[in-house]
Amino acid sequence: MNIVRNHILISIDAGTLMAGARAVEDALIKELTKYGLDKEVSVLETGSLGITGRGVVLVVYPEGIYYADVTIKDVPELVEEHLLKGRPLKRLILTEAPKRTIITKEKTGLLKEQPRIVLKNCGFINPENIDEYIAAGGYEAIAKALQTMTPEDVVNEVKESGLLGRGGAGFPTGLKWEFAIKTPGDEKFVICNADEGEPGTFKDRLILEGDPHKLLEGMLIAGYAIRATTGFVYIRGEYSLSIERIEKAISDARSYGLLGKNILESNFSFDIFVKKGAGAYVCGEETALIESLEGKRGHPRNKPPFPINAGLWGKPTLVNNVETLANVPEIIRNGAAWYKGYGTEKCSGTKVYTILGHVATPGLIETEMGTTLKDIIFEYGGGIREGKAFKGALIGGAAGAFIGPEMLDVKMDFINLREYAAALGSGAILVMNEDTDMVDMLKSVLHFFKHESCGHCAPCRLGTAKLVDIIDEIAALKGKKEDLERMVEITQAMKNASFCPLGQSVSLPVSSALKYFRDEFMARVS
Amino acid sequence: MTSEHPCQCAQVSEEELYPRLEEMIEQHKGKPTELIMALHKAQNLFGYLPKKAQEIISERLNVPISTVCGVISFYSFFSTVPKGRHSIKVCLGTACYVRGGQQTLEKVEKELNTKVGGTTDDRRFSVDVVRCIGACGLAPAMLVDNDVYGRVKSTKIMEILNKYE
What we know:
The complex is a heterodimer. Chain A is an alpha/beta fold.
């Protein structure tokens, strides 16, 4: 029998591919073969290890040692030192890694061991191999649901877990499912919203790339629970690797009988199809997404009726975000009570964040709901780059809120942030250092909204254009003091009168920027 | 993986590609809901959406030409004018903006002597702006065709672009 003593997991995602991950992988295999180690050491591809901007990243097990910025030139030394002689190559070791890879045993310098629910398999299994997902307990939850639970039981379990939708709004998932199951209809659909377009957010991409089967399993469970027959993954056209991986996952699942007719010999039949988006931020809004799925311009629809009553082709349709659906298999497998053990009383479970901007180690993390912003930035993000001071952050993407240093101790969850007129949104945390020009930041956000306003309704179309005019004037030192109030007035009108959340949410960045950084704006106007 | 070469017009004339288009959209025939998928294929084939291709898609899928035009103009992915052989997309999402995306764009514009939305005279490059490509950890980021470049420094831009003929 062939005994493998070391496993090298190499992160294959958009970032590492760019840095030449495939070339490093080939070089590793070649070098190992040279020493005759290719039978003892296996090289495996995995999804993102949650570390970005550090070139090719890989981890060697069983030691659990992370290497970053690995190039082809480093490979001979790495193989000779670590894998032949058993001496880890110190100069390439990524020291800040253990803080992110929270499930591993090495927890140096951690506050406490953090749970990984959504990203459990990311960076541990080969996302292109269905067997590895199954070996990690995959598709156990759908089997459990089909064999021991009625659709109503599944809905109740999700409801009981307190899972809130992770797409941004934080609507209770179980409640949505309950509406869906109660809506009569001979044909129902499940849509996974993977049109991740919120600037600063790439959590869904890394889930899709790192553990596509988990999403499929979540969709299967949702389909069973609401008695749907077909699922769609609506995915950004730009996410080519995600599309490739999810398509492979679907075809593998079909060949294993996990998608299609009579799944696991039950009466439940369900299939999933991928649909590509074509570059429109507004399509992240569920009714606009449905229009786009129907092959039309992505204009949002009037609500009500909500998609749950009349969605895709007028049929009852459940729309859930990638991260939401990725939570579901674990909830069904381990039970609602287990899930409620994580997070806060009102907001259970974990949240996947992307930390970006002026932090030492930007990347992806998963941590319990209720973790403070301070811990996220300073413990996981490694603090501010180049020893500069923290000035503020933009939380939840462009449709999110700016916050100042006084907000650092606030516990992050959907419910709690609402009390501070902020929103967790998509979980993007853009950190800004003391040198950041807040007027310029708001300008960038407003230009974004003007560009992405779909033109369907007047308040948003005209409002975003007017806001851009005003902020450009302020940035060019031609603004007046009244302009600041005028911006707030416009966004309030947009909040009240816009057709969809795109226009409604512009008030959040504007009012929060003016609240926390008013002095800076005042200094620019006459 | 399907071939994603963005533009094949350099080797083959546009006329010769129409039979291929017919073949590629055969599966979407009479299905108006698959318009966007059909447009994706056509744009991959031609590098843009010529009027004749729009007409063929309109007819085969049974969608009025006005609707086809409406959909094309709505989505930023689609273009009705010929593009360069390679597409450069500079990200100006918030994360890239704060890390110098604007400077990247200015440098690209200056070096190629063209503006956003434009194409170089030799049709080698088209320059566009995107709002977030999900590579925020690598900000400022830039896409050339399907390749993502992160931590783009002004001094490195020509080095990157020289890889594309």
